[in-house]
Write a structure and sequence with these properties.
Strand content: 15-25%
Number of helices: 22
Helix content: 25-40%
Structural class: alpha/beta
Number of strands: 19
Largest sheet: 5 strands, parallel
Shape: elongated
Strand order of the largest sheet: 12-15-18-11-19
Length: 519
């Protein structure tokens, strides 16, 4: 038994080996890609250099299910185990109730592969008792409870690590369990601590910009999409990069999902062991392709929107991204998942992220800045073209659209709000939301829709009249109307109130600068 990854979930692959008399030849069937076909040479050298014999017969290796495309090198260890078993060099009971994952080098060393965590979770859910993985993947696999994890550094270590007489003694046992010698065996663990800290980054580093900090607080409290508009050097990027310091840590389910995504993409690296507890913060360069941002490929792989799942996707200088990339964000922002269809099937990737973005008011950056020595050099037509790079439907999906003015060097930050202080307020608001939506399967006000939106955003008569007036005067869409309601709900939660007042609605409307600009 081995496994592969489809989307961000594991998928079982049965490795069948048949050896018959004939000219020495090895055939791999079951839709293998180049890396899988080349595994024959890796396995041959690993077996021989490990002191064992590679059969000089006709060998057929089948990877089932045969209609699923196989890619990568994760099947090497299972193929080697199957060949050794079929040739009588290994006791078949060593393969019973065991999943094999790992790439082999020519000298028999076992190398790590992406996706060990979702494969281990799949094995546990299917009732498999043990999994054999590369030694440096033990900590990752051990995040899943309820399965024995064996870490090996070489193919020979797997064979020599088991005591033959233990197998013989257990021959009459109802189960085929056996003890290990020389192998690192680690019981499953739920996770070991949180991720790395943000170092010296703190919200108090940003001078002034009281309204921007307030908008950041609201966005973090309800996971609302956020856009800052302002001249260069006003703190747009600084504010957005401090969002992770305000957000609450991932809970157990979220942490497991995020860690699985990073495992599939091979991005866990050698950092702190355990589940990822800090919310992801992804900041791709504006030259990224649509496939890199959304996901894609002949065999679909996750993109940045999936790597930002339960976290933040930050697009600095948003109009500089290609139009195709920006328009591709519209569906994930609504559906909170990415669906990629190919001839052989459809893959779905989770994409519950907060969009944080920044942009200048024009190409030169000084439109509306009020600076006599640095006036805007853009024509009205050029300003319109620049702002049109972000389409109306996309802008409509951004909850908070906030203009940041240029600050004086003598600006004194009266609020003095630090990340620790802001985080406490965010945690309180987040706890109110979790208690409110626990039975519905989501956590944030930004996820409200349909009947639940009406139920939990009931307005007082004066607040309803205010919102109706704003809707008519600004020509808002229904989507913008609903997003104002969600923001109002978050503002009331920050104030510790169940009722939404007219001042909450008025503040939410004040953060729709792009709607006001088109009035």
């Amino acid at each position: 038994m081995s496994a592969s990854v489809l989307g961000v979930e594991g998928r079982f692959i049965e490795v069948e080996v048949n050896i018959t008399s004939g000219l020495p030849q090895v055939n791999v069937v079951g839709l293998p890609d180049s890396a899988v076909r080349e595994s024959v040479e890796r396995v041959r050298a690993a077996i021989q250099n490990g002191g064992m014999k590679f059969p000089m017969d006709r060998i057929t290796i089948n990877l089932a299910p045969a209609d699923l495309r196989k890619e990568g090198s994760a099947f090497d260890l299972a193929i080697a185990a199957g060949i050794l078993c079929a040739s009588g060099q290994v006791d078949p009971r060593l393969l019973v109730d065991t999943l094999f994952i790992g790439e082999l080098s020519l000298n028999g060393t076992v190398r790590n592969v992406p996706g060990v965590l979702p494969m281990t979770e799949l094995a546990r859910s299917a009732g498999i008792r043990r999994i054999v993985v590369p030694h440096n993947a033990v900590t990752e696999a051990s995040l899943i409870q309820g399965i024995e994890v064996f870490g090996i550094t070489s193919l020979a270590e797997w064979i020599n690590g088991f005591i033959d007489d233990t197998v013989n003694n257990d021959e009459s046992s109802s189960d085929t369990s056996f003890r290990a010698k020389g192998l690192q065996m680690t019981p499953g663990a739920a996770g070991w601590g949180t991720g790395a800290s943000d170092g010296e980054i703190d919200l108090s580093d940003v001078v002034g910009q009281t309204q921007g900090k307030r908008a950041l607080l609201i966005a973090a409290s309800g996971m609302h999409n956020l856009l800052f508009v302002g001249p260069p050097g006003t703190g747009k990027t600084m504010l957005c990069r401090r969002l992770p310091t305000l957000l609450p840590p991932l809970d157990d389910d979220e942490a497991l999902t995020v860690t699985k995504i990073f495992s599939v993409c091979g991005k866990l690296g050698s950092g702190p062991s355990g589940l990822i507890r800090r919310r992801p913060f992804r900041s791709p360069h504006h030259t990224i392709s649509s496939a890199g941002l959304i996901g894609g490929g002949s065999i679909p792989k996750p993109g940045e929107v999936t790597l930002a799942h339960h976290g933040i996707l930050f697009l600095d200088e948003m109009p500089e991204f290609s139009r195709a990339c920006l328009e591709a964000l519209r569906q994930p922002l609504e559906d909170r998942e990415v669906t990629i269809g190919r001839a052989r099937g459809v893959c779905r990737f989770p994409a519950r992220f907060m969009l944080a973005a920044s942009m200048n008011p024009c190409q030169c950056g000084f439109a509306g800045g009020g600076l006599e020595d640095r006036p805007c050099t853009c024509t009205p037509a050029a300003i319109a073209r620049y702002r049109a790079r972000m389409s109306g439907p996309l802008a409509d999906r951004v909850d908070l659209q906030v203009e940041l003015p240029r600050q004086s060097v003598r600006t004194h930050d009266d609020a003095g709000l630090s990340s620790a202080q802001a985080s406490e307020r965010v945690m309180e608001a987040a706890q109110r939301q979790r208690s409110r939506y626990r039975k519905y399967g989501f956590h944030w006000n930004s996820e409200l829709q349909g009947p639940l939106l009406k139920k939990y955003t009931k307005l007082s008569s004066d607040a309803e009249m205010l919102l109706q007036q704003v809707y008519e005067e600004l020509g808002l869409s229904f989507r913008a109307h609903d997003r104002i309601l969600k923001m109002s709900r978050t503002i009331a939660d920050l104030a510790g109130r169940d009722a939404i007042r007219s001042e909450d609605v008025a503040e939410a409307v004040s953060y729709r600068c792009l709607d006001q600009a088109t009035e």
